[in-house]
Design brief:
alpha+beta, six-stranded mixed β-sheet, globular, Methenyltetrahydromethanopterin Cyclohydrolase, Chain A, domain 1, Methenyltetrahydromethanopterin Cyclohydrolase, Chain A, domain 2
Length: 321
């Protein structure tokens, strides 16, 4: 793995550019009382598609590109986001994955973005991709409904080993257009994470790309969470180029990736979540995967695909849920 690449250094210009055009993106920027920079991209701030697109690229540590388009799913047209990266292990698992529980006595949120590569959260994942970052600044994205507390901001800075003046905290709500956009922008990360879960070495994944619909926003958090998950699980498609010496094993792995392999597949995520008593740990982990995956093995030239877009569940979730 190329340890010379720093996701926190790579993303700093993009974060500063975001601050410069904050009015055009309808986001708000302020200094916290302890000196960190707080960027509200979709909690109290209105945000939008472009704020969400920028947030998705920042989440990938500046090592991926995101674009907004419109795609047809069955007989419906939906705004969608496409994502590409030439550094999948670092950009997606080492940065974008929401793998850090920010938990203090007075605050909780899931953290994603480049700061994780300084804190090494979770450590086992960084060992798997053989990566760690070194930087004087840190950028973290928090999915939350509230501003982080002073204690939480201090905890993040201390864990990352940076001065508070060099900490950039971006906050966004799932019930915002920014939030919905950046969650769909995690479609390729979702696919790579599932590939790793079923046994593929992430260091052998060379490139990743994909798309997913951007879920219509809903003011109620659990409903919004249901729709944004359905966008990935039933509407998301991924493509990876990989290096493998065993086509048969690769084919087996690809067939295990799609969300349709889960025993909980087939209902909207909200209904599944409700049936589990709103307890994530009671949901089959196999469900958290893209609807469709295609893999090209550059060693042999073979291509394998599995899964399918499920328009009926998308309609149920977006138009009835």
């Amino acid at each position: 793995m190329n340890l010379k690449i720093s996701v926190n250094k790579s993303v700093l210009k993009k974060v500063n550019d975001l601050i410069t055009i904050k009015d055009e993106l309808r986001i708000e920027v302020e200094k916290t009382e302890n000196g960190a920079t707080l960027i509200d991209a979709g909690v109290k701030a209105e945000g939008g598609f472009q704020a969400g697109r920028n947030l998705a690229e920042i989440c990938m540590g500046g090592l991926g590109q995101a674009n907004i388009t419109v795609k047809r799913y069955g007989d419906i047209d939906l705004p969608s986001i496409t994502v590409t990266t030439d550094f999948p292990a670092i950009a997606l698992l080492g940065s974008q994955f929401a793998g850090w529980q920010i938990k203090t006595s007075d605050y909780f949120a899931m953290g994603s973005g480049p700061a994780r590569a300084l804190a090494l959260k979770p450590k086992k994942l960084y060992d798997k991709i053989d990566y760690k970052d070194e930087a004087d600044s840190a950028t973290i994205i928090l999915e939350t409904m509230d501003n982080p507390t002073t204690e939480a901001i201090n905890y993040i800075a201390e864990t990352c080993g940076v001065n508070l003046e060099q900490l950039f905290v971006l906050i966004v709500s799932t019930s915002s257009l920014t939030g919905s956009t950046q969650i769909s922008g995690r479609i390729v990360e979702t696919g790579l994470h599932k590939l790793v879960d079923v046994g593929f070495d992430p260091k052998l994944v060379l490139q990743g790309s994909g798309f997913a619909p951007i879920a219509p926003i809903h003011p109620k958090f659990k409903r919004a969470m249901g729709r944004t998950n359905d966008a990935l699980l039933y509407g998301g498609s991924t493509f990876f180029t990989v290096k493998s010496s065993d086509d048969e094993e690769l084919k087996r792995i690809v067939n295990e990736v799609p969300s349709s392999t889960s025993k909980d597949y087939g209902k909207s995520f909200y209904e599944t979540f409700k049936g589990a008593g709103f307890d994530f740990y009671k949901i089959d982990p196999a469900l958290f995967a893209p609807a469709r995956i295609t893999v090209n093995n550059v060693t042999t030239g073979s291509i394998f695909s599995a899964g399918q877009i499920n328009t009926s569940v998308l309609k149920e979730s977006f138009f009835e849920g």
